[in-house]
Amino acid sequence: MRLKDKKVIALLEEDFEDLELWYPVLRLREEGAIVDLVAKEAKKKYFGKYGVPAESDYSFSQIDVNDYDAILVPGGWAPDKLRRYREVLDMVRSMNEQQKPIGQICHAGWVLISAGILRGKKVTSTPGIKDDMTNAGSLWFDEAVVTDGHIVSSRRPPDLPPYVKAFADLLAAN
C-alpha cells in the first residue's frame, strides 16, 4: 500500500463527470490513500452528469488544506461552479505554493485558470477548453496525460488509467 497515510482532497460539486471523480478516488483508496470528498456543504449528496451520487465528507470550511498531501479536481460541469468559490481557489493556490500534487482532468483546468497558477505550465485538458488554457498562459498538449512538476493533467475519461497512475506515482514520491 504505497499511498498509506497519504491524504487527498477530491473536490465535489453538482454535475461532476462521474468517472473522472470516482475512478481516481477508488484507485487511490485501493493504494491506501485517504481520499476525502470536500464540497461547499458537508454530508450532502451531489450528483454527477450521469446521475451517480457522491456524498461529501466535509465542507470547505471544515478542513485545513495543510493537513492534505494532494488535491484532485474532477471534470464535467462541476469545475465551472467550483471556480466560483474563494475557498476552492485558496486550496488550489496553497497546494501550488507548497508544490503538492494537483490533479486536473477535462474541464477541471478552469479551476486552475481561475486560481491563476497555469502561466508557463505544460498541461492538457479536453480540447474544448484548449483556448482557455492557452489564454491563461499555459503550454497545451494533446496527450493523454501531461505532468509538469506537481501538476498532473489529462483530457477525458479514456485517459483515466495513465492519468491516475501518473498522479499516484507523483503522490507516492512526495
TrEMBL record:
- Return any one Pfam family short name: DJ-1_PfpI
Enumerate the UniProt keywords alphabetically.
Answer: Hydrolase, Protease
Which GO biological process annotations does it have? proteolysis
Q: Does the keyword Hydrolase apply?
A: yes
Q: Which InterPro entries match?
A: C56_PfpI-like, Class_I_gatase-like, DJ-1/PfpI
Matches recorded under PROSITE patterns: PEPTIDASE_C56_PFPI
Occurrences of domain DJ-1/PfpI (ranges) = 6-167
Q: Which GO terms describe its molecular function?
A: peptidase activity
The family classification in the record reads: Belongs to the peptidase C56 family.
Q: Which NCBIfam families match?
A: PfpI
Q: What is this protein called?
A: Protease
